[in-house]
Structure formats: C-alpha cells, structure tokens
Amino acid sequence: MAYQLIQLSIQATDNINCPHCQQAVINWSEEQYVQPCEHTLFIAMDIGFEYITDEFEHTLRRTVDDMHANDDQVVVIEELTASSYPDFVIYQSDLGVEGYSRYVGITA
Fold first, then answer.
1. Where are the domains of the chain?
2. What does the alpha-carbon distance between residue 34 and residue 17 come to, in Å, rounded to a whole number?
C-alpha cells in the first residue's frame, strides 16, 4: 500500500497542520483557508478538490477536470487511494456536513 489513512478526531472548523513543517494547511483564521505547504499533495473533499499538485494529479486514474465533470459517478477517496504515488499519508477529517469528509494528502 502506497498510502496510509489517518482519521483525525477534530471538529470541521479546526485547523489541520502539516506533520513535517507544522504549517496550518487548513487555516480558518485566513480568508483563503487552504494554505498548502511544500509537503501538501492535495486537499480534497467528497464533493471535489480544493488543491492538488500536478505531480500527484498525474498519478491518478483520471484528471481532476474529468472527476469534477462526472462528480455523480466519482468517489473521491477511491480515486485518491488508487493513486500510484509512491508513499503518502491521507488525513481524513469531518467536513461539517453529515457523511462528508475532507482529505489532506501529505508526503510521507
């Protein structure tokens, strides 16, 4: 398995920090709350992507544009875990809408 999935026990409005550099990659005190650092591969939700590096997108089965165009047929976590990226961690947290999650991918 190239990825590790870690469930975060946090509220939907809590910041998410990079485990390497401690930067808040989800930072609710900023107007633009998505604040990726150099270790961030993607920030996604069950309803689509907020940020993704070109390097990580190239390891997916389909492009982000294709996933967004066919969002009724896409399960984001399945697409992320099917990536051929060599080694990464997915941090999963509550999105604040029942049944929906946010996923932050960080290099291992």
1. 3-107
2. 11
